[in-house]
Amino acid sequence: MIEQRARVVFLVRVPDERTGDFLRAYQSIRHLVAEGTPGHLVDQVCRSAADPEQWLITSEWVNLAAFEAWERSVQHRDLVQPLRECFSEEELSLRFLVYAQTPGAPVVLAEKSTDMADHG
Questions:
Q1: pLDDT, tens digit, 9 for 90 and up, residues 17-66
Q2: Is the CB of residue 93 less than 8 Å from the CB of residue 9?
Q3: Has residue 117 got a pLDDT over 80?
C-alpha cells in the first residue's frame, strides 16, 4: 500500500506591526526545514487578500507520520517559537491526506523531488 501524502494547514493572525518579524522568522527557518527534515516536501506562506492580518502556512509531507514525528521533536518547538510569538491569537491547525491532484503537477510519494524546488 502506498502511503498518502499529507497537507498541514495553519491559519494564523499576525498584527500589522508584527508582519516584518513574522516574515523574518519564516525566512530564517524555511530552508532549515526544507533541507533537514525527513519527509518534508514543500511549504508556503500566504497572506489573505481580504484581511492583511490573516496568514496561511501550508506544508506538504510524504505522510502524516513524518509531520507528526517532526512536530514532536525539540527542533520543531525551537524553530517555530519565533513564529508563534508573532501570532495575536491561537492558530487553527488542520491536517489533510492528499487523495487527488491535478494531472501534470509533480507527484512525490516517497522522497523529495527536484521538481518541487524553491522558487522564492
A1: 999 999 999 999 998 898 889 999 999 999 999 999 999 999 999 999 99
A2: yes
A3: no
111/20 Cα distance (integer angstroms): 33
Other CB atoms within a 10 A radius of the CB of residue 9 amount to 14
Cell reading at 13: 493572525
Q: What would the grid cell of residue 41 be?
A: 516536501
**Strands 6-13 and 54-61: what pairing?**
antiparallel
Contact 83, 22 (CB under 8 A): yes
What percent of the chain has pLDDT above 90?
A: 67
Question: What domains are there in the chain, each with its CATH number?
Answer: 6-98 (3.30.70.100)
Q: Map grid coordinates 496568514 to a residue.
A: 55
Radius of gyration of the chain (CA): 15
Burial 39-70 (b: 16+ CB within 10 A, else e): bbbbbebeeeeeeebebebbbbbbbbebbeeb
Whether pTM > 0.90 for this model: the answer is: no
